[in-house]
Amino acid sequence: MSQGQGLRILVLDPDPTSGQQVAMTLDAAGLDPQACAFDSRAFTEALSAFNPQLLWVRAELGSDALGRLLATLERQSQSQYAQVPIVLLCQDVREAAFVRHMKTGVVELLQLPFSPRLHVARLRLLPRELPERRGVLRATGTGRDLQALLEHLIRAHRTGTLTVNEGAQNEGRAFFVKGVLQSARYGGQQGPAALAAMGAFAQGAWQFSEGADGAGGLFEWDAISGEQDEPIFEGEALPAPPPSAPAAVPAPVPTAPPPQNYAQLAAATAAPAAEPAADNSKTPVLFVDDDPALCKLFHAYFTKKGYPVDTAADGVEAMQKLLQRPFEIVIADLNMPRLDGWGLLRVLREDARTLETPVALFSCHDDYRESLRAVHAGAQAYYPKSLRMNALEVQVRELLEPRRRFERLAGSGASVTVNLSSLGAQWVLRTISRLRITGRLDATDAWATFRLHFTSGQLTHAVARVESQTLDPQASLVAFLTGRGIEGSLAFGGESLPSSFGGQGTDDLLQYMTAHLNEVKKRARDQAQAGAKALDVNPELYPLYASVGPPQYRAIAQLLCEVKLLPRDVMARLNCTPQEVAAVVNDLILRGVAYLRA
């Protein structure tokens, strides 16, 4: 497979208009797509004429439409098309933890709706990633966890060997070809009964290895009579997983009871669990207003709803409290003494420790211009004081729902698509740490692609690629924390890496990094005001910055990096403030595009 650029992708979508739009987007990104009608004849003809290296399919795993497509591919068993990798664009991505271990068949689940930046970046990474995959999934858990894997093997038409090892005295194996069970043995039982027994054991370890190696001598039985032609397990047993092998996170626990026979298992689907009610006790709120009566009313109402509530009389007191403990949301009045709502918002956004804190502003005036200004200034919402308290609480819940949804999905073991710029990169890292997740976060923005690894919640490694350059772990983490418009996906399990950050816990690491970011900002501001002697520019990264960097920064960046003007001369030519120049210098430094020369 090619390394992303010019990758031939056959796009299949039940909606022809949607398929054409996806193909146009992929084409604009430098890939080589072709849209195809979603039927077997057109698909077979396109396979032969276009010779795709990857299939992009909008369908749910286990759907009839995908089943027909896989069956068409399986009939091509003597051609190169039989093993073409498949990327699914779908609503349900809970089985991504299984899919991302596989080298063939369905190798990626991307969550609807289509996101050009995120999904194109994943397509570019796949050609490099697939050769590194081993096609082996190892995990430890209960029979219900194993049942989820068995259902996946059927829905995804997997071919391979499942080895179950509950203990030295009780090992079993099952062989699947194109999602169909060929033979099984476990706990003294054979065939479908053995498979059902695997789904009923209390605790154990298992390994699934994809591929048809050794399947040629397998027997088949009549699914109705259950009669066997030959004994099971001729030859040597598969070796147990090596002790050092990383364990995958157990699959999501299905809600249905273990099936009693193979037919029941084949028909089973993992029903999505009902979403739990929000736990307000985990959502501390800070209310900021110089009116003691309103603070008392707010405190009483939101406390009754289960929220931990604190109040502050103005922006200065609020900032002091925010630096002492985290809050999930700040609701601040616009008009206050010492530091008003606008000033508090500016201070929060300038400090790396608090820049991700959601802020809602409110005032006595129900003015759409103030609302627009609040959003442009970095507030998440604007509320008039005429809003009733119960309606305000509903608005707050809606504002917090994206973070709560991420916690629900990640806490249940489901892979999830992440808008990091919306949730907050620091918040996501702290949540992964709190949930003790082992897995990988892949992300991208206009500047770079990122990959972060976690073991039991601890961030162990970070890498960022900017064009042909690969940044070191600390520079990668800086770029990740300061990125704009970052989107990504969190997958569970995978390789455990030694720490590239000296074994620091995620909270300690973020505390160090935010202090570093604040220091860089302060230096840039001081240098912009005092007049730096020069900026040393990275000649490889600056052209990229000039094309995809923040548009509002480009004029200042051009004068600093190309014309080589000093900050004071830039301010004179563009009639801009020291703070505006400092923001650009800070951005150039954090991205590694330029360095201040003392």
Can you tell me the CATH architecture of the largest domain?
3-Layer(aba) Sandwich
Strand coverage percent: 15-25%
Q: So what's the overall shape?
A: globular
Given the helix and strand composition, which structural class is it? Answer: alpha/beta
Task: Determine the number of helices (DSSP H or I, runs of at least 4 residues).
Answer: 21
CATH superfamily of the largest domain: Response regulator
CATH class of the largest domain: Alpha Beta
The assembly state of the depicted protein chains is: single chain
Summarize model confidence as the mean pLDDT.
Answer: 79
Written account of the structure:
- 38% of the residues lie in helices and 22% in strands.
- The protein has 598 residues and is an alpha/beta fold.
- It folds into 5 domains: 8-132, Response regulator (Rossmann fold, 3-Layer(aba) Sandwich); 134-215 and 260-267, no CATH class; 287-400, Rossmann fold, CATH 3.40.50.2300; 413-504, no CATH class; 517-597.
- A 6-stranded antiparallel β-sheet has the order 6-11-7-8-9-10. A 6-stranded antiparallel β-sheet has the order 17-22-18-19-20-21. A 5-stranded parallel β-sheet has the order 2-1-3-4-5, with helices on both faces.
- Helix 10 runs parallel beside helix 11 (341-350) and helix 17 crosses helix 21 (578-590).
- The relative contact order is 0.07.
- Mean pLDDT is 79; it is low at 214-277.
